[in-house]
Amino acid sequence: MLLCSYACGNENATDVVFLRAKVLENMKDSEACDSVLLEVRKLSYSGKTKALIYKELVDELTNKEPSTANLLRCVSYLKRAIEVAPSDHLFDLKMKLMNVYMLLQGKADITEQLSEVIVDIEQRYIVTPHQRAVFFHQKAVVYNMTGEYERALEYAKQAHKSYKETEDIDGQFEMLRFFGNLYGFMGQKEEQEDAYIATIDFVRRNKLNEKQEGILYLLANCVYGQQKYSEAIEWCDKVFEIKGVKIDTARYYRTVSNYYSATKDLEKARYYTYKIIDDYSNERNRFPQYRRLADLYARDGVK
């Protein structure tokens, strides 16, 4: 396989090389893909470009089902990327390697390697407060993925503190929302509600208006799950107070209709379903709502 003929010293051919490798990945032909990567290593690309190719392959594999075999291949690709990458890319690559090792816990004997990469990151690659925040944030995310919620919460709190110290508004927002989601996984509904309320207060203070709608619905679903039905609808209503952002009215009508349906207030559930139909101009989008209306009328004994 003479991929060198694609390159000819021209780094614009990177996408061609990656495409070949990606196709082979999708064919689950790991040996063929590895042979492609051996050719990539011989090309006259810079270390930065070669590292990018490996990183793209890791992204492809981790976006698939994170099987042990795929994760172990990610480790191999990341190590190759780290060998050739310039110094300003090493923090991100080491972080990605740490994440993969954490996902491999319980699936492979990687305890020693994980400990080594964590120490390596902390001692050699964290040079800014923002990098420290990202380090804690990623550990929280991975522990959340593996169901280790207490450890996820511990690192999320450290990440939030670091983001505050660096005045990173987006980072603080992400962690506040993360707290709400995490408390939900832990079954701590009151703490989840408090976290979402704190998130809404934060986005309002910082005028992050485009982020309000999603958080309001998360909070509404949270309090609805605690059987605070009228309060859930009140939180939904607050989407109309958001300034400067186009509101998804169909989403509002759909959510409120579902709430009324669950509380057996079928008249109001039908009312808001009709509102959804009026909101849609496309008949294809309206069709499921007609079916929903039929179900709601049937529940009321109307044929």
Give the topology string: H per helix, E per strand: HHHHHHHHHHHHHHHH
- Estimate the mean pLDDT confidence: 83
Task: Kindly estimate the percentage of residues that lie in beta strands according to DSSP.
Answer: under 5%
Could you say which structural class the secondary elements and strand pairing correspond to? mainly alpha
Estimated helix fraction: over 70%
Strands, total number: 0
DSSP summary: helix tally: 16
Oligomeric nature of the chains: single chain
Low-confidence stretches: 1-12
First-to-last CA distance: 68 Å
Q: Per the principal axes of the C-alpha atoms, what is the gross shape?
A: elongated
Major sheet: none
Radius of gyration from the CA trace?
A: 25 Å
Notes on the protein architecture:
The chain has 303 residues and is an all-alpha fold. Among the domains are: 1-115; 260-303. Helix content is 76%, strand content 0%. The chain is built from 16 helices and no strands. The protein has helices at residues 4-7, 14-26, 30-42, 47-63, 68-84, 90-103, 111-125, 129-145, 149-165, 169-185, 189-205, 212-225, 229-237, 249-262, 266-279, 283-299. Helix 6 (90-103) runs parallel beside helix 8. It is elongated and about 70 Å long. The relative contact order is 0.04. The model is unreliable at 1-12 (pLDDT under 50).
